[in-house]
UniProtKB/TrEMBL annotation:
Location of the FAM65 N-terminal domain: 1-294
Highest taxon, organism lineage: Eukaryota
InterPro entries, alphabetized: FAM65_N, RIPOR3
Protein name: RIPR3 protein
Length: 294
């Protein structure tokens, strides 16, 4: 992209074209953009990118991917050690079985390394567009403070165009990055309410992440156990949305709102299942237990 305000933008645009390419970003987004980025359609208002949120998500994602990489590298080292011992002991069948396991782990490690490199590549491209966008903003402000001339007005029009293009590219890269966030497997562990939960009580839990929804109903049994009509749901992580959890008590035809909470998903990018215990009521008399596996 040619930008009239500095030569720096040309250099950065060449780097972007070399490492990722504007056309390649949009081709990878072609399937997802009609739904997730419908606001980028012609005549619509472009979403405002969230660089700080993207940075936090990128750092959490990269840390989680590196945890998986370290865990599988440790497994590979362990299997390789056993492989050598087995070869010396000449247990042929076990030796070939270990060899298959080692090859499988090696393939998975290569996939993880490629995954990490793509995430880093996307984020680098995102940062470039963010800097170009900031540069356009600063130059627009500088021109607005100077006397209005034909040349300055033409420059402002060009800067506005550059700003819009950078904004649009940032939104598309955000969508491309979302493809690499994986899945959250959320399990229902039940409600904890001490004296608040009584046999026969019925509750409805509604979990939302952006457009994704999970509605499940549960009942407190006579032995204080709980039965739920669903136990697990898969959510696709979203850069901009948080988990919203709403609990209502069902009393005949009436429903009573128990509480609503929001939960950020940044801490879920890790290899170990994360237990979530959230206070549904202000006093914490009813808590909801969930488990999230990434």
């Amino acid at each position: 992209r040619s930008c009239s305000f500095t030569g720096f933008s040309t250099v950065q645009s060449r780097k972007l074209a070399k490492s990722l390419g504007r056309s390649s970003v949009r081709s990878r987004m072609s399937l997802k953009s009609p739904k997730a980025y419908h606001s980028l359609q012609k005549g619509a208002v472009i979403w405002d990118p969230k660089p700080l949120q993207v940075k936090k998500t990128f750092e959490a994602l990269k840390k989680g991917l590196n945890e998986y990489l370290e865990a599988h590298q440790a497994e590979l080292d362990y299997l390789s050690g056993r492989h050598k011992d087995t070869k010396r002991n000449s247990r042929l069948a076990f030796y070939y079985d270990l060899d298959k396991q080692i090859r499988s782990v090696e393939r998975y490690i290569r996939k993880l390394e490629f995954h990490i490199s793509k995430v880093e590549e996307l984020y680098e491209a995102y940062c470039i567009q963010c800097r170009l966008r900031d540069g356009a903003t600063n130059m627009k402000h500088a021109f607005s403070l100077s006397p209005s001339t034909k040349a300055s007005r033409e420059s402002l029009v060009e800067l506005y165009k550059n700003f819009q293009e950078c904004t649009e590219d940032m939104c598309f890269i955000e969508g491309a990055l979302e493809v690499h966030l994986g899945e959250f497997h959320v399990k229902m562990k039940g409600l904890v309410g001490f004296a608040r939960l009584c046999p026969g009580d019925q509750y409805e839990v509604f979990v939302r992440l952006g457009r994704q929804k999970w509605r499940l109903k549960g009942k407190i049994e006579t032995d204080d156990s709980q039965t739920w009509d669903e136990e697990e749901k898969i959510f696709i992580p979203n850069l901009h949305e948080k988990f919203e959890i709403k609990v209502t008590e069902l009393r005949g035809l009436a429903t009573i709102l128990v509480g609503v909470v929001t939960c950020d998903s940044i801490n879920f990018f890790t290899t170990k299942p994360q237990a979530i215990i959230v206070d549904i009521t202000e006093l914490g008399t009813i808590k909801l237990q969930l488990e999230v596996l990434w």
